[in-house]
Amino acid sequence: MTNAKIYDIKPAIASNAHITQPIYQNMYQRSIAEPDVFWAEQATLFLNWQKPWHTVMDCDYSRGHIRWFEGGLLNVSENCLDRHLAERSDQVAIIWEGDDPTRDKKITYRELHQQVCQFANVLKAQGVSKGDCVCIYLPMIAEAAVVMLACTRIGSVHSIVFGGFSAEALKDRILDSNCQYVVCADIGYRGGKTTVIKANVDQAALGCPNLKSVIVIKNSDTDVAWFNGRDIWYHVAMQNASDHCPAVAMAAEDPLFILYTSGSTGKPKGVLHSTGGYLLYAAMTHKYVFDYHDGDIYWCTADIGWITGHSYMIYGPLCNGATTVLFEGVPTYPEADRFWRIIDKHQINIFYTAPTAIRALMAQGNDFVTRTNRSSLRILGSVGEPINPEAWEWYYHVVGDARCPVVDTWWQTETGGIMITPLPGAMALKPGSASLPFFGVKPEILDNQGNSLQGIAEGVLALSRSWPGQARSIYGDHQRFIDTYFKSYAGYYFTGDGVRRDEDGYYWITGRVDDVINVSGHRMGTAEIESALVLHTHVAEAAVVGYPHDIKGQGIYAFVTLNAGVQASEQLSKELVNLVRQEIGAIASPDIIQWTPALPKTRSGKIMRRILRKVAANELNGLGDTSTLADPSVVDNIIAHRVNK
Ligand code: WTA
Fold it and tell me: How far is the CA of 131 from the centre of ligand 1 (A)?
């Protein structure tokens, strides 16, 4: 595509921006030419170190060996809290906005520091020590930030499990990361409904013999089952806890957190991030990508259960001394103007959300937006999936009144922070393009043979340089880390995304090239959903693919083959959906189930997903070569019974 629409840099933004066009060019060039010097400067600028590093970077992709700032010592909570106290102890660190619009609360840096120290002491009293893994399974309550930072204060490693995951998914993650401690709430609130939290932990715990304690945050008056000796109330433990807790000196490469994410094969993997590089990258990208200035009120709508919630709701903003908003609810409750009302209520300057939310709100009509003011907004951001130009234009014109640059930020759980993105004062914008690489990032477009293509090109996206925020391993399975990211194309980190580079060098992400699908900005492995479906005794085989969905980006389309003699029925369809909810969570529920007597397979028995994807997308003319199929008539049958929704 040429002649894409271009929105020029806004003088009003550029005149006050940290990074302008010449600064970007100069800094980018230096970041590539002299990475050691560049990153050492940034690490000094953004972080407080208890002891300086001796080696900036030591990387060897063939071994998945990635080290930054070795020899350096620092503490994340000290960087996010203590060092701000002298200047901003009375500044609000967190604005919490409840699901119920009448409920909100503000926590200053002093209060947050105090609560974090107290909870760190609670964790210690439970026996948690440096290097231990703590599972956090929480709704979007302000305490989530306290718990995360308390873990970092004593050097324990958190593993946050999204509150929408099922008991079974929680159990798998607790076991995989050997967590002996869980922090949860009694229940959660979302969209006027309650969500079960503690009961899921109780159920998961049945399969977790090593679990020692469950710390429960009281979020309601609901009675919950109680297991004496294992369960502890957060508020009771906090009452007696001292608010003095020294921050443990952590090595730059000590693990900071594990976060599970889906891949093309097998169970979700525990992506491991470490302390110094991650924090630097989160803070630096937060400041430059959103052009964050002191005093800005910043709101990222992500859930803490995803990487965006980690890097851009908690660690990046707090490291920069920002006021960050934590919203418990959903964009459409009580009405579809909730986001815009919150923006007016708290005078938000920087707003960061996902295309799926933008599309859903766009579908509700402009009135919900235009009846609010939004004049406080300066920068808009998008993350999680490709944003279609139509949604981009609506976001820009209707939400931002054509005043605010939209930063379309491409990155991944594994990258720790934003990798390809416009910088608001430095780049013209093209709707639908993530534009140009952040400092130190070297995108490469590879063909199937692994050749790096130059100029205008399309292929798979790989990165030839390491950057400080890069994941260090897959918890408990370093070989899988190497195999997944560094084996396909030697010398590169392989992203799993497709990409195009245009005549201006702008990057356009085209979506996943593997068996990962992106449903409402949530990354799902089709293999995981298939494994859940085949647990049903009536199911012989299942294949899951994504298909274009107006709101969710991709929907989940399942082709299911039943055992001989079993009749397909509406009831069975419901049972399968329930099974997926039980095994993974509601976010993985298939939108469409198509019964099929057989799946298209090659003679060697491999399912030809390419064909299923085309059928699901209703692209029936482009099925390609089907001659290698064991039984080409299977495809005719699948096409004849395709489900339209
Ligand atoms: C997709 C979320 C296009 C991409 C931060 C990536 C995007 C996956 C964008 C990672 C974007 C994320 N444009 N695609 N701006 N942002 N993606 O790990 O396919 O949940 O590989 O991290 O989301 O999803 P994850």
Answer: 29
